[in-house]
Each structure stands twice: as C-alpha cells, then as structure tokens.
Amino acid sequence: MTVRIRLVVNGSSREVEVDPSRALVHVLRDQLRLTGTRFGCLTGHCGACTVHLDGRAVKACTVLAAGADGARIDTIEGVAAEGRLHPLQRAFWDHFGFQCGFCTPGMIMTALEILAEDSRPDEAAIRRALAGNLCRCTGYQTIVEAIQAAAGEGAER
Question: Sheet harboring 3-9: ordered strands across?
C-alpha cells in the first residue's frame, strides 16, 4: 500500500507515492534523487540527514514522509542560488569547515537555523546548537569559525 503526498521541495512542487512507514530521508534520496541529504545513523543521533521542514531543522530519518504531506522541505541542494554559494557555504569553504564532507550538508542545514534564530551567536551558542550533529574529522572548531564568519553577512536565510 502506498499513499500519494505533495511536498514543496526546494521551492518546487512535487508529488510522490510513498510507503506510509518510509522515512523522509529515503524519499528524498531514493525517489527524489536529492542525495545531499545523507544517511548516517538512521536513529536521529548524528544529524547527517538534517533538512528544513516548514522552516525548522529536523532529522529526516525521524520523520515519516507521509507525515510531511503538504510541507515545505528545504535540502542542501536548495541552499545555493543562481549558481552561487550561499554565504554560509562560502564560509565553510573559506574556513575549512569540512574535511571528508559527509556531515557538511547536515551541519549547514543546522547552521542556517542557528543563524535564522540569532544573527550573531557566540561560540557557546553555536556549540550547543550543533550538539545533535556529529563530525568525525574536524574537531568542530573550523565549523564554529565558519558559522561565526558567516554571521551577519547575509547567511541567515
């Protein structure tokens, strides 16, 4: 049995048939081919699958796709505009806020929410907000520096 859901993904209306028990991360990657949203732990602990659901950062492995019917979903693929990196993406590049890159999409999606809520967060606030995102490579310092550099430079959506 499947259900038809409607989503607005990165500004485009989409309709898709989904298994009611299927997680949003699977639908984004497998059916909509938006592979920037990563599979990590599939338990909501690593943050690799972070997307925005109606403007709030959520872990797509913990959201049933059927429950997102009618929602606005923003993924990492929708962050850059007109062929130009978003200021936050540019800051990650400039400050080496990535190494292997696996966690980067989830980190950026979380950081966008951080900056939307506070355009000038201090280091402690950034670290608290990133607590649900795991990175095995950077030690987080360059990620924090990238977010601080982007703050106040139009990085908030």
Answer: 12-18, 3-9, 72-74, 50-53, 56-59
Element (H, E) at 142: helix 141-150
How many Å apart are CA 103 and CA 152, to the nearest integer? 23
Query: Three-state SS for 105?
Result: helix
Segment 72-124, tens digit of pLDDT: 999 999 999 998 999 999 999 999 998 898 999 999 999 999 999 998 999 99
Taking the complete model, does pTM exceed 0.90, yes or no? Answer: yes
CA distance 83 to 30: 24
Could you write out the DSSP letters of every residue in 16-80?
EEE-TT-BHHHIIIIIS--TTSPPS-SSSSS-TTEEEETTEEEEGGGSBGGGGTT-EEE-GGGTS
Q: Which residues contact 147 (CB under 8 A, 6 or more apart)?
A: 88, 91, 97, 111, 114, 115, 121, 126, 155
Q: Which pLDDT tens digit goes with each residue over 115-133?
A: 999 989 999 999 999 999 9
